[in-house]
Design goal:
The chain has 316 residues and is of the alpha/beta class. It has helices spanning 10-19, 33-38, 59-62, 74-82, 108-115, 130-134, 148-158, 171-193, 198-218, 223-226, 229-238, 245-255, 266-281, 286-295, 301-309; strands spanning 3-6, 25-28, 53-56, 67-70, 92-95, 120-125, 139-145, 163-168. An 8-stranded mixed β-sheet has the order 3-2-1-4-5-6-7-8, sandwiched between helices. Catalyzes the reduction of the glycolytic intermediate dihydroxyacetone phosphate (DHAP) to sn-glycerol 3-phosphate (G3P), the key precursor for phospholipid synthesis.
């Protein structure tokens, strides 16, 4: 089976570099010139793209392969797929983005399934930074696909000596873990940026995980999925590392500093989407609500902490 990666940002390029260990990979980019000229990505300085990677800006050419990985920002995924005229029947479509679509309230697997129902949708998610994958550092991810037989095929195709994939059929849990942990990372970054300390961060991570699990259960996701790589594992990474863009945004908000608007931070839009869902369903998602208000400038970090700490006392 042949592989194409759509999106030549840091993560998509890193995946292409890792997968090139297994054979030829097609990397689709909007602008191919930076990659073709030096065989290097400005997002991954110092790393040369192997010869096994073919770079193209031709969408139709990249769509010829059997397994298509979409490393497209979550809020752009639906629009990107609408540009593809083919129904992609018989192909495996693997989402490599995390979040909840503001327009539809769907996750990446939901978007793929709704847009291309004749293809098989899956998601690749978990605790990972692009630079680590590109450097060949050991990384473990979740590959979730509702059809386990197809999931096995994709698992073997996308696993490399340094990239270990664990298989699941719980696509809902996998996509929710990846989406919601970004919201919690913003909250943790804001707490640290405001100087509230490691204990506050630990509390936010713990209560954030409870909030993630509660919402996932309402969508019939499995508890073990949330406790795995795509949930707890990704939460631990993004809430504690300065390399996380969501955590960096939180730090900037906590420090009352400007943040580069050109940097894609999926957790901000996801928090807004989750806040709408909470209102519509009546679910209690206090951290999602707080982060939505914080990222929209409607409240300060002090306001948020006051709101969270003044919630009614209850059993854990």
């Amino acid at each position: 089976m042949s592989v194409s990666v759509f999106g030549a940002g840091a993560f998509g390029t890193a995946l292409a570099i890792s997968l090139a260990q297994n054979g030829p990979v097609t990397l689709w980019a909007r602008d191919v010139s930076p990659l073709e000229n030096k065989r290097q990505s400005p997002r991954l300085p110092g790393i040369t793209l192997p010869d096994q990677i073919s770079i193209t800006g031709d969408l139709e050419q990249a769509l010829e392969n059997d397994t298509l990985l979409f490393s497209i920002p979550m809020q752009n995924l639906s629009g990107f797929l609408s540009r593809i005229n083919s129904d992609l029947e018989g192909k495996a479509l693997v989402a490599c983005c995390k979040g909840v679509d503001l327009r539809s309230g769907l996750g990446p697997v939901g978007i793929l399934s709704e847009t291309k129902p004749k293809a098989q949708a899956a998601i690749l998610t978990g605790p990972s930074f692009a630079a680590d994958i590109a450097k060949g550092l050991p990384t473990a991810l979740t590959l979730a696909c509702t059809d386990d037989a197809i999931g096995k095929e994709i698992q073997h195709q996308l696993s490399t000596p340094s990239l270990r994939l664990y298989r699941s059929t719980d696509t809902v849990g996998a996509e929710l873990g990846g989406a919601l942990k970004n919201v919690m990372a913003i909250a943790c970054g804001a707490a640290m940026g405001a100087g509230l300390g490691d204990s506050a961060r630990a509390a936010l991570m713990t209560r954030g995980f409870a909030e993630m699990t509660r919402f996932a259960a309402s969508r019939e996701a499995r508890p073990e999925t949330m406790a795995g790589l795509s949930g707890l594992g990704d939460l631990a990474l993004t809430c504690t590392s300065d390399l996380s863009r969501n955590y960096q945004l939180g730090l900037a908000l906590g420090r009352k500093e400007a943040f580069d608007p050109s940097i894609t931070v999926e957790g901000a839009a996801t928090a807004q989407a989750m806040d709408r869902i909470a209102i519509d369903t009546g679910l209690s998602l206090p951290i999602c609500h707080a982060v939505a208000a914080l990222t929209q400038g409607r409240v300060t970090v002090d306001d948020v902490m006051t709101q969270l700490l003044s919630r009614p006392l209850k059993e854990e």
